[in-house]
Every structure is written in structure tokens, then in C-alpha cells.
Design brief:
The chain has 250 residues and is of the alpha/beta class. It contains nine helices and ten strands. The protein folds into two domains: 38 residues, no CATH class; 186 residues, Rossmann fold (3-Layer(aba) Sandwich), CATH 3.40.50.150. The strands form two sheets. A seven-stranded mixed beta sheet has the order 6-5-4-7-8-10-9, sandwiched between helices. It has a three-stranded mixed beta sheet with strand order 1-2-3, with helices on one face.
Length: 250
């Protein structure tokens, strides 16, 4: 994180940006395209990084998130089926690897109360900013009330979770080995890899999740990927390029 700083493109927002830098224990610097920067703009907070082209930010009310909410297939889509959403059943969920929050937003839009756990403070800042902005969007403000964010290591959080707060479902989307600079790897995924580093604890996280979840753990994987820790799930639900491994806990 030594090459990361906070900046702003607006003189009026310098105080806000400096406060954010202090909160994250990062330097406040001028705009610099040669390293990763969290940039406070008039519209949102975004990350700018070398070789990623346009800045990355999260918007739950537009783009891919809006399309998935409106046209994703409702409770009939593979993600919802894997989670156990059905008539009369709307489980509580912890998304232990929230990333940019797309899957969590889909599940919240289907009625689930979901806690997002994101370890990386820069990504958590983007998520928090997106959630705050979304409360001003009448179309999705009700969805956002079902989403809460925790900036913490998922294993630590689950190990310290009070019994009364155990969720029905824990959802995991572990980092998958990057294909370096392949055009098939979207820029937001390349940034996640760059910030999060290699996945070293998915097997431990799955083991703990199985002890904490009241009903099931769901692991999202590329369709051809091996099972986490060679643990075979009870069932699998597949879409075109993705597989959801379902581990029942009761």
C-alpha cells in the first residue's frame, strides 16, 4: 500500500480528501497517474491506477448493477437458487468476500438482508461511498437499507461473530488466479487482484464459514475451477461461465 495515496480533482473537496487520507492512514498528494490513488470527485470516490484506463467507482443505480437488478432473472437466476431463495424463504446472508458488491446488491434487491465484508480499505471506501449515494436514489433506496458494510478480514469477523448474529447463508467468491493482462480479464478484476494480492486463505475461510452458517455456504467459482480445498459440495448450480458450489450445514 506504500504506492497508494488519496487525492482530489477539486479544490473545494481538499478538506474532505485530507480527512479521508487521515482515516485510511494514507498520504494526501496531488494527482499522479503513476501509482494507485483514491480520488475524491464531485460525483463520487474513485480509484485511479496505472494501465487501467478509466477510473473505477461503484454505482448501484446504473450500469451493470441496474441491468442485473432489472433483467437478471429474479429468484430464478442461478445465484438466487444457490443461495436458497424461494417462495417463503428469504435467508439472511453474509457476503464474506464482497469485492465491488455486485452479487450482494442482486441478493438485496431480491429481499435478502446482507452483510458485506470487505478487507481492503480502498475497496471498502468505494463500497461505502456507493451505498451512501444510493440512499438518494428513490428506485433503490429500499434495497440499500438491506445492505450493511464491514471493513474487516472475513476470517477474523466470522471468528468473533456473536451466536445471535449467525446468518442463514455465507457467500464466498474467492480470488481466482489472474490471467495476467489477458483482454478477457476486466479492469475492475485486475484492480482487485492488484489490491488484494494472491488468495491464500480460501480453504480456511470455507472451513470457518461451514461452522458459522446456519443453513449453507455457497462458493462462486469459474465453471472449470477445482473445488476449494478439494471439498466436494452437496450440489452445484451452473450458468454459462460460473459455478455455485453449495455446502449444506444442517
Amino acid at each position: 500500500m506504500s504506492t497508494t495515496s488519496v487525492s482530489t480533482d477539486s479544490v473545494e473537496l481538499e478538506i474532505t480528501a485530507k480527512d479521508l487520507a487521515d482515516k485510511l492512514a494514507l498520504p494526501f498528494t496531488s494527482l499522479n497517474s503513476e501509482h494507485i490513488q483514491l480520488v475524491v470527485t464531485q460525483a463520487h470516490i474513485e480509484i485511479r491506477a496505472p494501465d487501467l484506463g478509466k477510473p473505477i467507482f461503484i454505482d448501484f443505480g446504473a450500469g451493470k448493477n441496474a441491468h442485473r437488478r432489472q433483467f437478471g432473472g429474479g429468484r430464478g437466476q442461478p445465484l438466487a437458487k444457490a443461495i436458497g431463495l424461494k417462495k417463503g424463504a428469504t435467508p439472511t446472508i453474509i457476503d464474506a468476500t464482497a469485492g465491488f458488491g455486485g452479487d450482494a446488491f442482486v441478493l438485496a434487491s431480491l429481499g435478502c438482508n446482507i452483510t458485506l465484508i470487505e478487507q481492503n480499505p480502498l475497496i471498502a471506501t468505494l463500497l461505502n461511498n456507493a451505498l451512501e449515494r444510493a440512499t438518494e436514489n428513490a428506485e433503490i433506496e429500499g434495497v440499500i437499507t438491506r445492505m450493511s458494510l464491514i471493513n474487516d478480514n472475513a476470517i477474523h469477523y466470522l471468528n468473533t461473530l456473536n451466536t445471535e448474529h449467525r446468518p442463514d447463508v455465507i457467500y464466498l467468491d474467492p480470488m481466482y488466479p489472474n490471467r495476467e493482462k489477458s483482454a478477457l480479464v476486466k479492469k475492475d478484476m485486475r484492480l482487485l487482484h492488484q489490491l488484494a494480492g494472491p488468495d491464500t486463505d480460501s480453504e480456511q475461510l470455507l472451513t470457518i464459514a461451514q461452522k458459522i452458517a446456519l443453513k449453507r455456504v455457497v462458493v462462486k467459482r469459474p465453471k472449470s475451477a477445482p473445488f476449494i480445498g478439494e471439498q466436494k459440495p452437496v450440489t452445484r448450480i451452473e450458468s454459462k461461465n460460473t459455478r455455485y458450489d453449495v455446502y449444506l450445514t444442517k
